[in-house]
Amino acid sequence: MSSRSVIPFGPQHPVLPEPIHLDLVLEDERVVEAVPSIGFVHRGLESLVSKKDFKEMVYVAERICGICSFGHGFGYCDAVEHIMDIHVTERTDYLRTILFELSRMHSHILWMGLMADAFGFENLFMDTWRIREKVLDMLEAATGGRVIFSILDVGGLRRDVPDDMLKSFLPVLDDIEKELAIDIKTFLNDSAVKSRLCGVGILTPEQVETLGCCGPFLRGSGVKRDSRKLGYAAYDDIDFEIITSNDCDTYGRTFVRAYEILQSIKIIRQAISKVPSGEVMVPVKGFPQGEHMTRLEQPRGEACYYVKANGTRFLERMRVRTPTFANIPALTETLQGCDMADVPILIVAIDPCISCTER
Amino acid sequence: MEQEFRKVSHHAILSEVQELQEEHYRLIQICATTVQEGYEILYTFGKGYDEVQVKIHTDVGEHVQSISRFFPPAWLYENEIHDLHGIEIDGITLDFRGGLYRTKEKAPFAHKEVKEGK
Amino acid sequence: MNNVNFVGQALKNLFSKPATLNYPFEKREFPEGTRGHVENDMDVCILCGLCQMKCPTGAITVDKKAQTWAIRPFSCIQCRCCVDNCPKKSLSMDKMYQEPGPEKTERVLDLSDKQKEVLAAQAKAAAEKAAAAKAAMEAKKKAEAAAAAGGAGNPS
């Protein structure tokens, strides 16, 4: 009978600059159980609602996470706008869609780099991040910030993105598409990369449904569900197919993310061609009263924003359920029975954003 | 678009949840809110793109039944609620007993009386 | 043959110019509207304190008595909220990022001498106006009282 040993993984680990701790119970080289614990960087941002008024909370929401900053700000604003019955202008909807897709691109390209780093392909890692820089430059030109955009406000956007700037993004997007094609080919066809990804962390479509997964993790197992189809912002006017993969393993998740970047480029092109002119801000009067739950598709999956207001300046509750949080049960499931060497890949495969999980 | 928050007595939550499970709903999230007299717990279930919101109310110190028997991922949310709000939840399949979140202050979102009482 | 996919790109990367800048010698061109750090034009500032009230992190302190405007740059989140709310447009956002430092400092700006004079003159004018208004008010009251007394003393 082989003896069991417990190996701690994290909160400091070279593959993952994020503080999650896992107790891995090993039997020889095989993981039999993984017990997660989080809370190393719990900042209590949700309890700030008692100190910051509902407009200042936009800044707090945007700073929940550096990578999905736009999504958090958008989800919060959307929930408050629903409560206060504010209808933002069409131009705002389109600009928000464009910025959302740009931030999805930068998040997915970042993930591809991290994945390449996790399976030890440093050259690919650097190449993807070189491409990501172009996306960040576009975001900086449009919003004024590279990762924290501070452009959202309840009722619209704090600054307009001029039409000629949007037009100037088109050739950059063409460049990115061309350059990414090489990297994506390497990710999906290279035999060395495939040997690390194929057959690792298999979850059947039934399993991902019962485990409550979301985002590329869900679609990588063949479930066709993307919250963008709920039609918030301008997504109901935009024509796009949900990308799924029937591989049900880490390769499938990589496939979904890789093609979602290319799809984002297509969505941005569509949105830029359709952007109407007009104002980007509508006046906001009074204080919110009521409650609302907004669901939207962040780069990492479906995020939920629950806002409860009582008619004063201060909200009663703001709750964010981040996609990483929903994927943790599935992570512990995939870790059971895997090889010790595959643990970093499996953890990176859910695109963990632990700091985002610990508001 | 008005959302419906279905209010349920907290003893009836298990039967409610069982019905939803039989209708093949999935768990989207559970969240607790500290309100003036106790806590509110909001369960969100989804099926396809539809969602159902179920809300229960508990008093301070009251125990709540876990729904992790019906929806496996609930263990994570219920541990979170226990660690942040200090609500006792019975029968979680994977109970961390306050060890999931390593916060300096135990139950930071709990009611003031509870915090001072401890 | 599938594992030579990336060789072309790798060779290209090897022989092409670096994608990064040779930083201290080569500075980056920031696009228009980059939020770097907050600057205050002390020739225009009227020390109204609106930025202090609006700042979400409370990084700005306005001292009307000492006539200074101070910011704690390490608390500032570069959200541009103060710049958007400034009534005199004396605040602006510089494109260069905040410089790092060994400790969290506070940057205190004194009001320029010219602006001090302007503000003093304005305060004096306002005080005079208030005094004049008060005097006028009192005169009016007196006149009303006199009229009322006159009215009371003349019943028939």
Helix and strand topology:
The complex is a heterotrimer of chains A (359), B (118) and C (156).
Chain A: E1 4-9, E2 21-27, E3 30-37, H1 57-62, H2 69-84, H3 90-118, H4 122-143, E4 152-153, E5 156-157, H5 163-189, H6 191-197, H7 205-210, H8 216-219, H9 250-274, E6 289-298, E7 301-310, E8 315-321, H10 323-335, H11 343-349, H12 354-357
Helix pairs in contact in A: 2-3, 3-4, 3-9, 3-11, 4-5, 5-9
Chain B: E1 5-8, H1 13-22, E2 26-35, E3 38-47, E4 50-58, E5 63-65, H2 74-85, E6 88-90, H3 112-117
Parallel strand pairs in B: 1-4, 5-6
Antiparallel strand pairs in B: 2-3, 3-4
Chain C: H1 7-15, E1 37-40, H2 50-54, E2 60-63, E3 68-71, H3 81-85, E4 91-94, E5 107-110, H4 113-152
Antiparallel strand pairs in C: 1-4, 2-3, 3-5
Structural features, described:
The complex is a heterotrimer of chains A (359), B (118) and C (156). Chain A starts with a strand and ends with a helix. In chain A, strand 4 and strand 5 form a beta hairpin. Chain A is of the alpha+beta class. Helix content of chain A is 46%, strand content 14%. In chain A, the strands form 3 sheets. Chain A has a 3-stranded antiparallel β-sheet. A 3-stranded antiparallel β-sheet of chain A has the order 6-7-8. Chain A has one domain: Orthogonal Bundle (Cytochrome-c3 Hydrogenase, chain B), CATH 1.10.645.10. Chain B is α/β, with parallel strands linked by helices and 118 residues long. Chain B has one domain: NADH:ubiquinone oxidoreductase Nqo5 subunit (Beta Polymerase, domain 2), CATH 3.30.460.80. Chain B contains 3 helices and 6 strands; from the N terminus they run βαββββαβα. In chain B, strand 2 and strand 3 form a beta hairpin. Chain B is globular and about 40 Å long. The N and C termini of chain B lie far apart (43 Å). The model of chain B has no long low-confidence stretch (mean pLDDT 80). By secondary structure, chain C is α+β, with helices and mostly antiparallel strands. In chain C, the strands form 2 sheets. A 3-stranded antiparallel β-sheet of chain C has the order 2-3-5, with no helix packed on it. Chain C has a two-stranded antiparallel sheet with strand order 1-4. The longest helix of chain C is centred in the C-terminal third of the chain and has 40 residues. The termini of chain C are far apart. Chains A and C meet through helix 4, helix 5 and helix 6 of A and helix 1 of C.
